[in-house]
Amino acid sequence: MARTAAPVYDPQAIEPKWLDAWKKAGLFRVTEDSSKPKFYNLVMFPYPSGPLHMGHFRNYVIGDAFARYKVMRGFNVLNPFGWDAFGLPAENAAIKSGIPPRVSTEGNIAISKHELDIMGVLYAWDREVTTCNEDYYRWTQWLFLKFLELGLAYKQKAAVNWCPKDNTVLANEQIVNGVCWRCGTKPTKKELEQWFFRITAYAQRLLDDLKKLDRWPERVRVMQANWIGRSEGAELDFFIEHDGKLRVFTTRPDTVFGATFMVIAPEHEIVQKIVTPEQRAAVDGYIERTKSETEIERLSTEHVKTGVFSGAYAINPFTEERIPIWIADYVLATYGTGAIMAVPGHDSRDFEFARKYKLPIRRVISVSREASNEPLDSAYEPYEGVLVNSGPFTGLSVKDGIQRIAADAERKGIGRRTVTYRLRDWLISRQRYWGVPIPVIYCPDHGIVPVPYDQLPVRLPENVQFRSDGQNPLLHTESFVNTTCSTCGKPARRETDTMDTFVDSSWYFLRYTGAHDQTQPFDKTKADYWMPVDQYTGGIEHAILHLLYSRFFMKVLFDAKMVSVDEPFAALFTQGMIHRNGYVMAKSKGNGIAPDEMVEKYGADTGRVYELFIGPPEMDAEWNDRGVDGVARFLHRVWRLVLGEEDDVVAGVVQVLPEDLTRKLHETIDKVTKDVEAFRFNTAMSALMELTNLMQDYLQAGGRRDEAWEAVCLGMTRMLGPFAPHLAEELWQRQGGEGLVVFQPWPEVDAALLRRPQVTIVVQVDGRLRDRIEMPAGIDQAAARELALRSQNVQRVVGDRRVQRAVYVPDRLINLVTQ
RNA sequence: GCGGGCGUAGCCGAAUUGGUACAGGCGCACGGCUUAGGACCGUGUGGCGCAAGCCAUGGAGGUUCGAGUCCUCUCGCCCGCACCA
Fold first, then answer.
1. CA dist A592 to A57, A579, A639, A768, A811, Å?
2. Cα(A801)–Cα(A817) distance, rounded to whole angstroms?
3. In terms of CB atoms within 10 Å, which of A17, A401, A529, A752 comes out highest?
4. How far is CA A280 from CA A41, A242, A276, A330, A534, in A?
């Protein structure tokens, strides 16, 4: 093969050329091709907030390397990209600087695309999706209407989280550690009419199907399961003295004989009905105080429990005792029924409350019947033990008690077994401008009227007046607000709320399968060909929000027969973040490294390989500028080895035979292939470095650039294809390769070449390493033992003791056990 | 508090899942090339010991022919969730 020598590796001189070549060759331009297996490779699309830095690129480099690898493995690879382009930052910037959101967003997209290009990160740009463009958001609106039609979108007055800084409501999922996920402000509660998606209707399936996601990280599944928060228990009705009843949810019906008082949330609607005249003033004062508390203060475990007596009493249906009803903010209005039966003996929160307000504490569970009256100095909360002081149920185990008491309540018609979830419906209304307008109108005669499908899109006006008070400018854009009812033609008003941007990102992966469809959100045939996403790669910060919402969407669309699979992402990988100088690489910390800087100093390939080599991809990693130098040295070395002429021979170095080189090549192919399949890019890079080191040793020892050598060079070149793609193309061309290396098949392991004629057997005596002996591969135990016993080291250690037995691991180790 | 995970050289980290502990990179040392270099190239590099060897995977036990890997206890760190009845 004709080789063209080159004096030095000059990345800046070669990289742009190959970017053009890939674009011309249509890398990642794909159609539904049944002759090849499909592979849908996806990285989470970004919000275009400004220039990218090398921290962002870890995700894109991993995704790009994997996509290129799959191309080389012969897959029909869909590898699209887009922009989650609606959102608050662009709007806030517009308020500050007057630059319209579309202008700044498009500017940021252009910059980012350039940066992806120079790093050699390519996508199916012919399928690019931008969520703020009309040809995308009209279909987001279309899907909203579909949800409405299916009864999965509804408007309701509710106490919702309001962020005073961002001037909008937030979904439950967007309250992180008690504060707004975006700006860190403590939210307040507001009573507002808002749009919701009925995600709770899918709670059980979202939980059950986590089991199907065996190629998702365990911790993401655990986080989602906890978020959904299924609890099995029972609802029990307690009659209120004089009038009505109070329903509670409990996971421990077995403790009902220990319920010595009840507690209801301050927001509970029954409060006003039951409060007695004597307690009215105290109760009103208490409710007023709890309202002024922020959510974070109220939910804190350190928060000292407070409460007030309502004056009313209920009857415990099992003990028939008269028990007081208290109002306390440690009971949440939004969980269960907003009311509890308090069992201070067996619930630490109730215990604390009972102590403070001198309420009776009774033991109804004990380790044994005999210990039934032992005093309690803290709540006793085990799931084993026996029921005591529990009337006819005394003596039952906790497990049986739960079943028998629940069944008894059912029979008496005062309760039923039930399941509760923590998951709340998804609040999707946002009182903000830069988002998808919710496509409904309000008619004085017809109420809420959905905009007919054929009138979509409801265009977001772009000529609006931003306001310094943070109010949604749509409210004041008359041309937008004023419309006519599509049913009766009378004047009507448009909804001015826009949708949570997480709605946009809940279906973008479907739009990629037919990005320019002008007639529907996506084509079922195409979606069926490509879905599910085979490999999804992105940040752990989306463990709940985006990933849960997308799963919900997929299930709704599955039920609507619009898609044929009900989970969107078959495999998920969450990469760690890159730190530098002690902080996560971020624009705000000023510790980012610009891709341009990287390319100018080292070339894109060094940046790419460094990000793959930096550490286990799922873990955070510290950026080390010297480490980048090390990778640059590695690539320069590969260049010299593959394209160099003759090297200086240094005598006296360990002999490396051509067959050793060939074997190492195949071992490397084997290792790199397995590592890449398992997303262990760091060890894949180490393996390539090892091969390079052996190539160096070979030449140092006077090895010739013969056929075996050439084969190793070509194998190395192909393996570099996904990781250092520009360098690989250049090496491929200079070695006389045809076409592009990215379209070459990934090298195959020749199992015959992996076998060694000789193996090093570790010889242990009583488990301690005593010698290493070269033996023929496949040697049996008796022969290996024979050889091992000849070792002088072994003989000295064994002395005159008898070798009682030997443990033999074929071709690896023999352990001689004495005595 | 509950759940998940981690602890290996001076640093980042490997270790076919119970079988040679520390691959690869950084750093460091020495050598080469250089007028010179914090550049480049190469070699070496866990600790103690003259050596045979011994000691080393946060700590203490245990199981095993054999433990970084499994079990028990313990210390430390990280990440979720957090008054969810």
1. 11, 9, 29, 50, 49
2. 10
3. A401
4. 62, 17, 6, 20, 61
Q: For residues A641 and A699, what is the distance between their CA atoms, to the nearest angstrom?
A: 9
| pLDDT tens string A762-811 | 999 988 888 888 899 888 999 999 999 888 888 888 888 888 888 999 88
CA of A461 to C1' of B41 (A): 64
Provide the 3-class DSSP secondary structure of residue A245: strand
CA distance A357 to A282: 15
Residue A458 makes CB contacts below 8 A (sequence gap 6+) with A141, A437, A439, A451, A494
- In whole angstroms, give the CA distance from residue A79 to residue A62: 12
Instruction: Please say whether the dihedral angle defined by the alpha carbons of residues A328, A333, A339 and A340, taken in this order, is positive or negative.
Output: negative
pTM, rounded to two decimals: 0.93
Q: Which nucleotide is nearest to A341 (CA to C1')?
A: B85
Q: Which residue has the tokens 């013969």?
A: A706
AA identity, residue A603: G
The neighbour count for residue A26, using CB atoms within 10 Å, is 10
Find how far residue A205's CA is from the centre of its chain: 18
Nucleotide nearest to A686 (CA to C1'): B24
Closest residue to B27 (CA, C1′) = A626
Q: How far apart are CA A275 and CA A282, in angstroms?
A: 10
Residue A41: how many other CB atoms lie within 10 Å: 25
Dihedral of CA atoms A53, A58, A61, A63 in degrees, nearest 10, equals: -130
Take residue A175 and report the two structure tokens written for it.
């309250």
Phi, psi of A457 (to 5 degrees): -85, 155
**Cβ(A689)–Cβ(A634) under 8 Å?**
yes
DSSP secondary structure string for all residues of A570-581: SBEEEEPPEEET
In angstroms and rounded to an integer, the radius of gyration of the C-alpha atoms of chain A is 34
Chain segment A94-133, per-residue pLDDT in tens: 888 889 999 999 999 999 999 999 999 999 999 999 999 9
3-class secondary structure, A621: strand
Residue–nucleotide distance: A702 CA to B60 C1' (Å): 54
